[in-house]
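Researcher: Go.
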Amino acid sequence: MLEPRNILYFDQFYFKNGNAAKAKYFIVLKRIENRAILASLPTSKDHIPYFVMQKDGCIEMPEINLNCFVISPETCVSECGKHFPRKTFLYGQNIDEYEISFMENTYQLKNIDFVIWGRMKESLFHKLINCFLNSKSIKRKYKVILV
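Model: Structure:
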């Protein structure tokens, strides 16, 4: 479940900050030994300035502290041929650590609490990681983990 490149889908994802639970995709970026994972929560919310052309891939705007990886609905995301239903944004600022024990205790039942939606295509995953690694807005501690 919590392996790098796995894309999970939760009908009810419980946010660390206490926001109301909702349906959410979850991309595992890195496993940190047996204690935590580094992950990104994709969103369909567009926070990119209107004047920036949005093509698939990395958008880096250090002058406004913005890092985002854009995936269009036409882009094949998974090895099994799946696409996100909407334009999807992975903001570097939304990378976070999740304790493995919390994840496994909270989401115990595969295909009920969560589904493994797919495994991100390796080439796309490397582009995503490089986008985050080359960003000035990503926390240094996360860059060290991603290397």
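Model: The longest strand covers residues 22-32.
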